[in-house]
Design goal:
The protein has 106 residues and is of the alpha+beta class. The chain is built from 3 helices and 4 strands, in the order βαββαβα. A two-stranded parallel ribbon has the order 1-4. The protein has a two-stranded antiparallel ribbon with strand order 2-3. The relative contact order is 0.23.
Length: 106
């Protein structure tokens, strides 16, 4: 049952550095205008940034998850501890680490 679901989010890219395109934002807003709170812009001409952990947390709670824990660690800014493909590309690294994400039912 959903009331037995415990979810953990992160480390993952943080809301201040996850740049997305305007088409990404438009698609979310088309389906759910309340999603606007998960997008921000540093300036009028800036690309939108997206609060991925905040959005996922909201959706999991809406779906009835009993517990949603957010690590609050940005893998982009904590790149020495966690892999970030986007970060490795911005730093011009020739190679990059590998990552796996998992959904586990027990």
């Amino acid at each position: 049952a959903r009331r037995h679901i415990h979810a953990a989010i992160g480390p993952c890219i943080g809301p201040s550095v996850y740049e997305v395109g305007p088409d990404f934002e438009a698609e979310f807003l088309k389906h759910d205008p309340a999603s606007a709170r998960f997008f921000a812009r540093a300036g009028a001409q800036a690309r939108p940034t997206f609060d991925l952990p905040g959005y996922l947390s909201r959706r999991l709670r809406q779906a009835g998850a009993a517990v949603v824990a957010v690590a609050g660690i940005c893998n982009h800014t904590a790149h020495r501890e966690f892999f970030s493909y986007r970060g490795s590309q911005k730093r011009g690294e020739a190679d990059y680490g590998r990552q796996i994400s998992a959904i586990v039912l027990s």
